[in-house]
Amino acid sequence: MEPTKNCLKDLSVFSLLNGDEIQSICKNGYLKEYRRGEIIFFENDSEKKLYLLVDGQVKLSMLSSEGREKVMTILQGGDIFGEISLFDHDPHPLTAEVLEKARLMILDWNDLEEIIMKQPRLALKIIEALSKKTRLLTSQVRDLVFHDAKGRLANLLIRFANDFGQKVEEGTMIEIILTHQEIANLLGVSRVTVTKTLNKLIDEEIIKIKERKIYILDDEKLNELVKDI
């Protein structure tokens, strides 16, 4: 299969892009593969590029001055990132790390400007990506203000079920495997708190864990936990 057809097939995951926009991206961008654990860019790096995640999983996080990690979100195929630092002179506010072998389409800023001039709708896709992250940050602030650890975990599981969920006989299986420490970094709580809270949800038959994957058994009870206090 010729390179352009390969590229079009790869980028079909970006359902919001039309054929002309994908053609422009294929012409000006380049595909790159990353292994699990590789860093795509670090917090405070100043490279201005737009990243389109074709497949795999990427974690966006930040570090405190004491070296504590706060995970902001986990991206999957079809997500766009790197857009936060495109339109100003500030460096990346987050670190992007590969959680699961990933393929990315990468566009340099100079090429992206040219594409946007020819395909203005692409700018709307970037704005949509920014809006998605703004909503995520708003949700995280809401969790910190209104919810205890149990409510925060419930909200995270609901989000993961929507983004990574697969319907099975028992309920919804979350197709992503995270350690208790990684979940703690997402929630801003301790690993011990995550372990205790997961065990409570298991005892209440809201979830179960099998082969390290989380299954949601009772959607209604889980949603009850995220109601505002």
TrEMBL record:
Keywords: DNA-binding, Transcription, Transcription regulation. PROSITE patterns: CNMP_BINDING_3, HTH_CRP_2. Residues 13-133 form the Cyclic nucleotide-binding domain. GO terms for molecular function: DNA binding; DNA-binding transcription factor activity. The keyword Metal-binding does not apply. InterPro entries: cNMP-bd_dom, cNMP-bd_dom_sf, Env_Response_Regulators, HTH_CRP, RmlC-like_jellyroll, WH-like_DNA-bd_sf, WH_DNA-bd_sf. One of its GO terms (cellular component) is cytosol. Residues 147-220 form the HTH crp-type domain. Gene3D superfamilies: Jelly Rolls, Winged helix-like DNA-binding domain superfamily/Winged helix DNA-binding domain. This is Crp/Fnr family transcriptional regulator.
